[in-house]
Design a protein that fits this description.
By secondary structure, the chain is of the alpha/beta class. The protein is built from 13 helices and 21 strands. Helix content is 35%, strand content 23%. Strand 11 (299-305) and strand 12 form a beta hairpin.
């Protein structure tokens, strides 16, 4: 079935065809090269996609066997050649790894030496354990290109007006970095509204004013933020003067009632995404809204019950292999989410990429204040991810007036850092007094997951299909 092409403005076409390629060439980026490949591969059949995946995996395994200590030892001990895995097309020959294993000895999972220009990324740590990972430049280009393609399905082409209702830096960047970012956003026609500031109905008015003034073709938001400003819109009768083409949600579960509210208020399509800081965009809805297409040119995704692959509709653990990160290869990495395949049939949009159906991401709760204001649980990953001393955390609200921030530390937290955490919390949710408690370990739920934020009365919330990024 043919679906309407997402809108593309003259400025967007100028940006993508001329300005952006020139800018990226100056920076030594290869995003354009990957983008061109991704445009072609959308029309590949599944067999060709899988041939591509195995060819890329062969290169990654050969590199890991030669350069990465963990895999040097593993291949030696198991007397297996990288090419044998590819020839047999059997991922189960390789070991499963998880966040705890990689975080405990990160140097074992990093190439020695690292590829030139490798950078460090920090995960937000919604599982309660922020992780620092290395990323080689080409892999970073793949992440950018894959995200551009998926977001482009919802009208979020670079150069189109886009409104981000998203998290912002809680530790301010340098003035020079801030100036560069503002210039980049100006050229991209990108406008940010801090999700952290949407605590009350009055705050939600800021989003509605931004929509009317900025006239975005696409909006990117957390589902919980969307629910706050959509409820305000329903209460006041507000509707956008200029309808966007699409709203993209990520980082949290998208509940059916939130999708319905967004569609009703914004009068446009709602596109669900799934991803993580380790891999960025992993799955994204197209205009068929019939499951999330996996970014299979960049990733190999398994859904397992133990070591047994699951079929459509069968819930299992998500295991991901990043095909292009040669700085710190993630091979059969257990990301900590549960999901199911949607269907083996080709989507009505014509893309052969397999689709995810139900995704149970990591549960984050809201912290409430006496005046009815709420602070998203995603505040804490963004606040704590840059403190090297913090190994794990858990935030527990005892009552409307107090919150305990439990910290398992790998080293001493300086007084200035402690005060910064407490004061930043007070700034964003006045009326609730935080306390830091150092603990030997945080509590683990019966499911084996750490609930990083435990709010008042939130344990009764049902788990539903959604996305986490």
């Amino acid at each position: 079935m043919a679906y309407p092409a997402p809108p593309s403005t003259p400025y967007s076409r100028l940006w993508r065809r001329l300005l952006e390629p020139g800018f990226e060439k100056l920076r030594g980026k290869r995003i354009g090269e990957v983008t061109a490949l991704l445009e072609q591969s959308q029309s590949w059949d599944l067999a060709r996609l899988q041939d591509w995946q195995w060819s890329q995996l062969g290169k990654l395994l050969a590199w890991a066997k030669d350069k990465v200590p963990y895999y040097q030892d593993w291949f030696s001990q198991n007397r297996l050649e990288a090419r044998e895995v590819v020839e047999q097309r059997d991922l189960s020959l390789l070991p499963l790894v998880d966040r705890d294993l990689v975080s405990a000895r990160p140097e074992l999972f990093r190439a020695a030496p690292l590829p030139a220009g490798s950078i460090q990324k920090n995960t937000g740590g919604t599982t309660g354990a922020p992780m620092r990972l290395k990323l080689d430049p080409y892999s970073n280009d793949w992440r950018t290109a894959v995200t551009r393609r998926g977001y482009g399905w919802a009208g979020a082409h670079n150069g189109n007006r886009m409104l981000m209702v998203w998290s912002t830096d809680l530790i301010p960047p340098s003035p020079q970095a801030l100036r560069k970012r503002r210039l980049h956003h100006l050229l991209l026609r990108l406008h940010n509204v801090s999700y952290m500031n949407i605590l009350s109905p009055a705050d939600a008015d800021l989003v509605m004013r931004s929509v009317d003034r900025f006239k975005p073709l696409a909006i990117v938001t957390y589902p919980s933020a969307a629910e706050v400003f959509c409820q305000r819109a329903l209460d006041t009768g507000w509707r956008p003067r200029h309808k966007p083409f699409g709203v993209i949600t990520g980082a949290e579960t998208l509940f059916p009632h939130q999708r319905e509210m967004l569609s009703q208020v914004m009068q446009c399509q709602v596109f669900q995404t799934y991803g993580s800081r380790e891999f960025m965009l992993t799955g994204c809805e197209c205009q068929a809204h019939d499951g999330m297409h996996v970014s299979e040119e960049n990733l190999m995704l398994e859904i397992l019950d133990g070591e047994r692959p699951q079929g459509p509709g069968q819930l299992g653990e998500v295991v991901i292999t990043d095909l292009h990160n040669f700085a710190q290869p993630f091979i059969r990495y257990r990301i900590g989410d549960m999901a199911s395949w949607h269907s083996w049939e080709v989507c009505s949009c014509g893309r052969a990429h397999r689709r995810l159906g139900q995704v149970e991401g990591k549960v984050v709760d809201m912290i409430q204040a006496p005046d009815g204001s709420k602070l998203t649980g995603h505040f804490f990953p963004h606040l704590l991810k840059d403190f090297d001393a913090v190994e794990r955390y858990q935030v527990v609200q005892q009552n409307l007036e107090s919150v305990t921030i439990r910290l398992k530390l790998r080293s001493r937290l300086e007084d200035g850092e402690r005060d910064y955490i407490l004061n930043k919390f007070r700034e964003f949710l006045p009326g609730v007094e935080p306390t830091i408690q150092e603990v030997d370990e945080v509590e683990i739920a019966p499911t084996g997951k750490i609930r990083t934020v435990i709010g008042l009365g939130s344990s009764s919330q049902p788990k539903q299909a959604g996305a986490d990024q």
